[in-house]
Each structure stands twice: as structure tokens, then as C-alpha cells.
Amino acid sequence: MSTATTQKRSFGAAVWDYLTTVDHKKIGHLYLAGGAMFFLLGGLEALIIRIQLMFPNSDFITAGLFNEMLTMHGTTMIFLAAMPIVLGLMNAAMPLQIGARDVAFPFLNALGFWLFLFGGLLLNLSWFLGGAPDAGWTSYASLALYSPGHGVDFYVAGLQIAGAGTLMGGINFFATIVTMRAPGMTYMRMPLFTWATFITSVLILFAFPALTINLFLLMFDRMFDAAFFNVDLGGNTIIWQHLFWIFGHPEVYILILPLFGLFSDIFATFSKKRLFGYTAMVFATMLIAFLGFMVWAHHMFTVGLGPVANSIFAVATMAIAVPTGIKIFNWLATMWGGSITINTAMLWSLGFIPSFTIGGMTGVMLGSSVADYQYHDTYFVVGHFHYVIVGGTVFGIFAALHYWWPKMFGRILREGLGKITFVLFFIGFHLTFFVQHFLGLMGMPRRINTFLPGQSLDTGNLISTIGAFFMTAGVLVFVYNIIVSARDEQAPADPWDGRTLEWAISSPPPYYNFEQLPLVRGLDPLWIEKREGNGKMLPGEPLDDVHMPNGSILPFLMSFGFFVAGLGFIYQTDNKLWFLALYGGMAFALGCMVVRSLKDDHGYYIKKEELQKALDREAK
Amino acid sequence: MSYDESLFPEKMPHNPERATLEGKNKFMGLWFFLGGETVLFASLFGTYLALKDSVHTGPSSDELFGLPLVFLMTVMLLTSSLTSVYAMYHMRNNDFKKMQLWLGITGLLGIGFLVCEVYEFAHYITDYGFTFRSSSFGSAFYTLVGFHGGHVTFGIIWLITLMLRNAKRGLNLYNAPKFNTFSLYWHFIDVIWVFVFTVVYLMGKVG
Amino acid sequence: MTDNVESSHVDAFEKERSKDEMKRQVISFALMIVFTLASFGLVASGKFSSMFVIPVILIMALVQVAFQFYYFMHMKDKDHEMPSTLIYGGVWCAALTFTGLAVITWW
């Protein structure tokens, strides 16, 4: 158990601490580390794709391997890089922003992380065990059903396990925000990042079950000879597409809404100005989430649903541009007349505005069902979604990391290196993806492993690949920044003259976050105290013993059990002995659940004397 | 304030299941989870509706289903929902023994439901050759109804674990939320069953 | 630490209110059984066309489910605004999923 002062401890003790932690801040670190590792992997896969496509008729990698690369690049980046990093940020910042000491279900929080990690590990083991999945990140039923080898089975099992983790995260954040806000923090006084966490949790809750079922259906068809997608027995492959996109469309809003919330906080902080149109921003976020469930078939315009269905989905798709546009204008209005600081976090945010807007614009173009017949399955789509995901989510992640790095790790990332990263990555990003819109319009289909010379595609692809090298350089500089700033001086509690509660406590915070939960007097609670009080939060409760949860190795063990069971599921078609792994793994995981239920775990109390000492130390 | 004082108060509040922060969290957590389960089952129902006419060479829903057994199962599950309400009523009145009694009856009715369902599946497999693999209708039927049955099974295991673990402890603010969480879950699987018997069995017989 | 196995003092007013509540629950249960019987009867009789029966049994299912949520699960009580919102949200997404799969899969 750590104390407020750093203590020397062995490497083994540190590892055990992280293996058993239920502290949202440490779990945030874990998610970031895991997500970052998979981001590098996904980036490597992208680099290989781009090198293969640098020149026509290239045989840098075989066609089969190319299919595996593009599948794994997409799957890894979305499920194992972007989502975990976003969940990590939500874990790190949200409880602090609402003035809570942890999330509602700390044990479940840890379990969610380990499930993600083991799911991701399982998926990537496929590289070494006969080949990765190769049916695209969307794994459409027809192709996925008959894909030889076990690749797609790894996809099914890995995502099922990781997806369960995400669902748990969503439930946790939602319950936390409902029940554990500090005194005085009404819903309409929450920072936008917290609102975004709240609404994203609802999206996660309603979107992931569709994926869960879809994965079960594919699993049953591939591993147990069921007949959901098997046309001979009466099945229908369109079911896969419907369920996939009913999940998949809200999924992309899950990826972007938290970053929208973050940008709202960043623009307000670095313009030294209250967010413009707070209420409208909250409702716009809700509207985007709501509409996000009603547009899924815009991924299926060319499937043959007919003009009536297509038109309905086209109109709904275009409607989403409205609340999104409101957000863009409100961010601009927040900056207008403000006292602006341009640091790296702000650069990423400023870079996001035009980049995401372009992506959104091409999204509306794609939303026209008629025009989509021309764009569908071409590089135009690839250009669009990279503009919104990279221009939105990835830029947002870089901004968030610079913004919250002091709070999470007690160090400030170096500005010079940060700006270099930004410039390299920004240039590379536009080089790679802007040209892809034109490649698509000129007819280059997506997911092809090579192209012929003399079709006007050569230059575009070459430029696109050069951009990838720029982005790689930018990322490497960022990694260097992390390493080199680790030994800089300790960061102050409030390096940015912040407005929200997380800046009221030290960087990093003590393990219990707040000695006394703060009293919130309005929106931007810390700013109010700076302007109308003494710059410090007033206490919202009397000083008393604080209840804290105990750590536990069970989340790690349980996830391991499911991991083993996953391998069992995958290989039982080859050899019946694998049923031992299947049942053994499940029994082990269920056993962990039983142990958790039967063994009382009431946590422990921090005595108020210790908290008083910490308060006295701060006062000096 | 010691742990004991907070969880074993002199006077039990009238809503013990939501009197602590943990209770409130469990309450919100479970309702949230049920919202997600709604979409989970909707995906299964949608798949079922899309595939229920793909009978291949096997029997159709009209030939297969027998309403009397389904009616019996429905009454059992519905009654078990009522008995769990009784259990919660006694919990709120701080009557531990009666709560355990009604929870026990709930469990027995749930087991009865499952026994009937296993019998029904066995009957289809043996007498009609209607299996998970024999047609898309079969895959969809067994997955939908099976997932529901799986939820009932999980619920019964949960109930038995709760009852055994707390048998000697009596009611307090630590376990009251657990019983309430179970009870909400149990009602929800009855909600799903209402849709199962309507959409699968009744619509199956109407043709 | 006392084991709380015997019945102890609960506010008399709360007890009375619980009893009323319990009566309402039993009435709800009775109504649910009636609806169930009606649905089964409607289908078993075989006398009505499916165009009529299907919407009616679906509506009866929805009503039964409303009773289950509002009465058995206490959704009508105070402090259930958030659960209500979530269930309605879930029902909305469920309806979209269900309708999409049922209607635009084969057409």
C-alpha cells in the first residue's frame, strides 16, 4: 500500500502493484501503455501496407499476407489502440473531474482492463499460430465463414473477450457519474469531457451487445456448423452486416465523442474563456449519439436494400452534420476574444478543427446513397475515415496526452519535441490521406494488394506512402519525448492555470485523490475559486476516515482463464483434447468469480489523522 | 465510524438495498446492464425473425411447438417473478427468514422452468431431428431460446450462491443490495420470456 | 456485531405502505396472467387471421412488460428516472435493431 510520499520499492513490488491494482489512476496507466503498444503494432502494419502500395506491381508481401495486414491494422487500431487509450483517458481524468475518489466498481475496472489485454494478446497470437484473420476488420460473413485456417477464429475469440472488457468500462463510468459526483456538482456543472464520458458509456452499452451476438453467430457457424450465414441451409449473410454496423456506427462515435469533450475542455482552458454554448454542446453530444444509432445502413448502400431504405438512412446520416457543426462553431466562438496560449495540446486541437471538418464533409458526401455507389469500396472511403479517425481521435489523443500527462505522471512533456511531433505527423497525415480521396475518385478500389502501372495511380500512392514515413517519424519523436522528459522536474498541480477539478490536486494526485471531497459552486469549479475565492477548492464534507478498495489478483487470473478458454474454442475443431482448455479455462474463470463472491472484501479505511497530516503538509 | 456500525445499524432503513453508496452503485449498475441486455436480446430476436422461415428440410415452427408446455413454463416463470417480489417485500420489512423462503420458492420455480425447457429441447431433437445445425431456423431458435435459458441458469446459480453465503449472516446493508440486484435481474429474464413466448411460440403457431 | 436474523422494528407507516404496494403487485400479477391467457387463447383458438393476432399479441406483450417494469421492478417509484431513461433508450435501440433485421434482411 503506497503512501503520499514516494517510496523506494523493488521492481517486483511495482509489478505486483500494477497486476493487482484497482486504482483508476493506475488502471489508466495500464490502458495507456497497452493501447500505446498496440498503436505501435497497428502503425507497423500500416507501414507495411503502405510500402507494399508504394509502387505498382510490388511484391513486398504476398497477397494473403496483405489481407492479414489490412485486417489486423484496422482491428488493432480500432479495438486495441484507440478504444483502450480513450478508456484510459476516461479512467485517468473523469473521476478527478467530478471530485470522486475512484470509480463505482474498482474491481470491475481492473477486470475490464485485463480482459482487453488478454483479448488483444489472443488476437495477435494468430500471427504466430498459422496466420492472422484476413477477412477485413469488418469480417463480412461470406468471406469470414470460409476463410481457411484459424485466423478468423482468433478474431472472434479475441474481440469477444476484449469487447466484454469495454462493456464493463462503460457500465462503470456511467454508474460513477450518476452516483459519485462531488457535492454541488450537478449534471450541468460537469466538464464536457465528463459529459462525453457519460454519453459514450451509453453508446458502448447499446452498441457492443450487437457485436457480441454477431461474434457468437460467426463463432457458431465456423466452430459448430450452425446455419446463420450458410446460404445452403437457409442462412443470410446480410444479418452479419446489419449487426456489425448496428455496432460499428455507434462505435465510431464512441471513438470521437470523448475527444470532442476533451477539445471543449482544452479550448476553454487555453483561451482562458468559458466554453461557448455549454448547454448546446451537451445537447449536441446527446443528439450525435442518438442519431448515431439510426444510420448504420449507410455502410450498406450498395447491398441492395432498395431506394426507400437507402433514402431514409441517407437523410439521417446528413442530419448528424448539424450537431457536429454546432460543436465546431462553438469551439471557434470559445477561442474568439480569448487570451490564447499556443502549446502542443492547443496545436493538436487547432489541427483537429480543419482536419475533422474535411473528414466530416466527405462523410456527408458518402452519405448521399446515390453518390455512394461511386465511392463505396474505393480509397475515397479510406481517405474519409482516416480523416475523421486520425484527424479526430488520434489528434485528440495527442492533445489529451500533452494536457493530462502532468496529472497522470507528474512530468510535463517537452514543448519543443511536442511541436516537432505535431509538425511531422500533421504533414504526414495530410500527405497520406488527402491524396487518397483522389485515388478513390480515379477508381482505385480499397483492400487491393497492388495496382497496375499506367493507370494514373502511381504518383498518388507514392505520395501516400511518403506521408506514412513522416507520421512514423513524428511518433518516434513522441516516444523519445516521453523517455527524455521522464527525468525532468516534478510537475506542479496546475501547470496550465486550469478550470476544472483535476487541477486542484497534486500532479500526480495522492492515491485517494481528495482528502475531502470538494464543494462545487458552479461550472468550471476551480476557475470560480480562482476568481471569487482563494484559488483553492472549499471542502464539501467534514474530514473523516476514507474508505478505499483492496487490490486483487483475481481480475488478472479471470482474464487469463477466458484467454485459455478462447484458445480452446479456437482449436477444438482440430483436436478434441482442446476441450480441456475450453472447459478448464471457463471453469477457472468461473472459479475466480465464485471466489470473489464468497470471500468478503470490505476494503480498508484511511484514518482521518493521516489525511489531516497531508492537509497540513499542503498548507505549508 | 467503524465498518460494523455502518453495516449493522440498530435500525434497518426501509430501503436497505439503496442505503449505502455501494447499494446505489449496484442499483445503477444493474439497470444500466439491463439496458444493454435489451439490445443483446433484440439482436437475437431480429436474427430469429429473419431466419424463422428458413426451415430447409426440417419441421416448421407450426409443426414443432406445443403450446401447453410453453404455457406451463410461462406461468412458472411469471409466478417466480411474483415470488421474488414477495421476497423483496419481506426484505424491506427486515424479515430475513421470510425473504429466504420466498427466494427459495423463486429458485425452485426457475429450476422447474429449466427442466421443462430441457425436456422440450430433447423432444425436438429426438422426435423431430430438429437440431442447432439442421437448418437456419434451428440455429436461430436454439440460440435465442438457449441464451435466455442460459441467463436463467446463471440466475439460479447466482441465487443459490447468495442464499448459501448469507444463510447465517442475516440481513444487513452489505447483502441487501446483492439480493435486490438479483431480484431485478430475475424480473428482467421474465420480461425477455414474455417476448420469447410471444414472438417465437405464439407467432410460430399463427403462421 | 449482531446477526440480524429476527424481524425488528421498521416504521409502522412504511409497513403499511409496503402492504398496499404488495396488493398492487398481486393485482399486476393477476393482470399479467390474464394477458398471458388471452394471448395463448387467441392463438390456440386458431379462429383469427394472423394479420389481427400478431399485432394484438405483440401489444399485449408490451403491456405485460410495462407492468413488469413499472410495478415488479419499481420503475414508477421515486429515484428511478435514470433507470427509466436507460430502459427506454435500450428499448429504442432494440426496436431499431429488431426492425432492421426483421424487415430489411430479405427484401
Can you tag this structure with a few keywords?
heterotrimer, A: 620 residues, mainly alpha, two-stranded antiparallel sheet, 20 helices, 2 strands, 67% helix, B: 207 residues, elongated
Structure explained in plain terms:
The complex is a heterotrimer of chains A (620), B (207) and C (107). Chain A contains 20 helices and 2 strands. Chain A has helices spanning 11-20, 24-52, 63-97, 106-125, 141-146, 151-179, 192-224, 238-270, 278-292, 307-319, 321-335, 344-367, 369-375, 379-409, 415-441, 458-485, 525-532, 554-571, 578-598, 608-619; strands at residues 546-548, 604-606. Helix content of chain A is 67%, strand content 1%. Chain B is mostly helical and 207 residues long. Chain B has helices at residues 3-7, 21-51, 61-64, 67-92, 96-128, 136-166, 176-206. The longest helix of chain B has 33 residues, at 96-128. Chain C is mainly alpha-helical. The mean pLDDT of chain C is 88. Classes of the chains: A mainly alpha (620), B mainly alpha (207), C mainly alpha (107). Chains in contact: A-B, A-C, B-C. The interface between B and C is large, with 62 and 58 residues.
Strands, helices and their partners?
The complex is a heterotrimer of chains A (620), B (207) and C (107).
Chain A: H1 11-20, H2 24-52, H3 63-97, H4 106-125, H5 141-146, H6 151-179, H7 192-224, H8 238-270, H9 278-292, H10 307-319, H11 321-335, H12 344-367, H13 369-375, H14 379-409, H15 415-441, H16 458-485, H17 525-532, E1 546-548, H18 554-571, H19 578-598, E2 604-606, H20 608-619
Chain B: H1 3-7, H2 21-51, H3 61-64, H4 67-92, H5 96-128, H6 136-166, H7 176-206
Chain C: H1 12-45, H2 50-72, H3 81-103
Q: Specify the structural class of chain A.
A: mainly alpha
Average per-residue pLDDT of chain C, rounded, comes to: 88
Count the strands of chain A? 2
Number of helices of chain A: 20
Largest sheet geometry of chain C = none
What is the subunit organization of this protein? heterotrimer
Structural class of chain C: mainly alpha
Order of helices and strands of chain C: HHH
What share of the residues of chain C does DSSP label as strand, in percent? under 5%
State the share of residues found in helices of chain A, binned by percent.
55-70%
**Beta strand count of chain C:** 0
* Content of β-strand of chain A: under 5%
Strand order of the largest sheet of chain A: 1-2
Stretches with pLDDT under 50, minimum 5 residues of chain C: none
* Shape category of chain A: globular
The level of helicity of chain C is: over 70%
Q: Report the C-alpha radius of gyration of chain A, rounded.
A: 24 Å
